[in-house]
Amino acid sequence: MSSPTQVLARKWRPRCFSELTGQDHVVRALTNALEQKRLHHAYLFTGTRGIGKTTIARILAKAFNCQAGVTPEPCGICSACIEIDGGRFVDLIEVDAASNTQVEKMRELLENALYAPTVARYKVYIIDEVHMLSKSAFNAMLKTLEEPPEHVKFILATTDPQKIPVTVLSRCLQFNLKQIPFPLIVSHLRHVLEQEHINCDATSLQLLARAAQGSMRDALSILDQAIAFGEGKIEEASVRDMLGAVDQGYLLDLLEVLAQRDGARMLAIADAMETRSLSFDAALQDLATLLHRLALAQIVPAAIGDDEPERDRVFQLAKTFAPEDIQLFYQIAIHGREDLGRAPDEYAGFTMTLLRMLAFIPEDFLSGGGETGRDRGTSGSSPAKSGSGKYPSTLGQAQDSGQTETKGRTETKGSGRAEMEKEGRSREGRVARNDSTGDSRRSAGPVPDSPERDPRPEKPGSTEFFSHSWITIVGHLKVNGLTRMLAQYCEVKSFSEDEIEFCVPELHKHLLDKTYQDRLQAAIREYLGKPVRLKFSVGVVNGMSPAEQENREKQEKQSQAIAAIESDPFVRDLVENFDAKLIVSSIKPIQ
């Protein structure tokens, strides 16, 4: 009769500290304490399931009672080590707190603790899931836990330390175990399969490791299941069928048809997924994971490994979408997953999430050739919209650093200064016409720009000219947050070919942080296409900053809106005949 096969989770349970995976911070602390003989009387290990709490407790029990002495490296061959590994050591008492919650059980255990160990150096009590003990049981163990006999060591383990009284926590040396990182689980599973002489491809290993969600015990249990499911072989198709995992091909196809704004094909893919009875909750989770990989491919291409499945398609999609679109789709995916339980059914919730992505794609997204309108603005024949497609994307710089960077510099030099001068002349022309036409502009409609008319004497390159152009330039700079706020409150004080001096009002001098100044200088250099030095000062401004200009425009629009309402015949009739009052604060101009 053949001996029964031992499950992988027990067969590959670590027997010493060096075999532990992913808990280096705990191993280091315990190893140093054992080497220096600084032994505590109570230890508490916390963390989620299957990450090594009970395993570390048993290794620590061997370290206390190994016949070679107290050591961080138990020999594993003495009777104490062998019996502890076999679960039959008389002086190692393992207690399941979930099954022994009553105070009577705890009192019995503490009474036995007073007696000296039978054969070992220390009597070790391992209490698993200690948070399940009753309040009375915790109170009964407080005194013994604080001052136990010299020959007693307590090792507590729990998945929920918040339920343990503070009085117990303060008496223990606490170690928080981490979830095991995904790469370490993959590496350990690969090692186990090599020792078991079982072949497995990289994609299957990643699927199994991801399904474990940070638990090594879960990973080994799922691996056991996969071996049985595949009749001794592990293949990607069988693993996906076993886990109910969504084929990445479906998700990549969805993003490709999303880029083409093809709603019919998108629903056809969703129908195919429903036909295979795939979990739409898992599909949205994997879709969010895929979008995260696309974002990494754009910003940090090196983070996508060479062995990444569908690596070429990931990078192609990363070039297709703009970074802000990917961020938006990611938010839609995770919110769609949260709303899945409230949807009429999973299919409706999943397809509604896809349609929401489709609805939020910019109207100018497609311009032919699979590129976005924003990216095509630098290379196509049609003019780009202001502030979009002006410079190469991060992905382009990382993938094609030589050719793309040269092209980006050439376009920036030409377009930045030319657009600055054009916008400045246009703005000055509009200001001059406003002065001459007065209120007639509102009745006659907007006057078309006339580049030939230039009533102002300023020349391109003068301080006055750049001051007017600065309001337009700020809208094109690639800055955000406090750096953009600094740019908006800056007023041009002087301007030369290689230096710009700004003045910031006293109220906003807190924005003059060195970091924000450097970011603004880099953005201006990129826009102008040449080195430029910035100087900042704090003082009285003349109201020519972009923020002040925007505020004046808002006030003017608000005044016009109020005047329009007040002059409306129906409103005037209400005020005169019914003593109505106009609530000015409720009037908002039409954007």
Key terms:
single chain, 591 residues, alpha/beta, Rossmann fold, Helicase, Ruva Protein, domain 3, Zinc Finger, Delta Prime, domain 3, 5 domains, 5-stranded parallel β-sheet, 3-stranded mixed β-sheet, 26 helices, 7% strand
Structure description:
There is one protein chain. It is built from 26 helices and 8 strands. By secondary structure, it is an alpha/beta fold. The chain has 5 domains: 8-176, Rossmann fold; 182-243, Helicase, Ruva Protein, domain 3; 248-360, Zinc Finger, Delta Prime, domain 3 (Up-down Bundle), CATH 1.20.272; 463-544, GMP Synthetase, Chain A, domain 3, CATH 3.30.300.150; 549-586. Helix 13 (263-275) packs antiparallel against helix 17 (346-359), helix 14 runs antiparallel to helix 16 (323-338) and helix 16 (323-338) runs antiparallel to helix 17.
Gist of the model:
This protein is α/β, with parallel strands linked by helices and 591 residues long. It is built from 26 helices and 8 strands.
Radius of gyration: 35 Å
| Domain module count | 5
Provide the helix percentage: 40-55%
Q: Which fold name is given in CATH as the topology of the largest domain?
A: Rossmann fold
Class from helix and strand fractions: alpha/beta
Beta percentage is: 5-15%
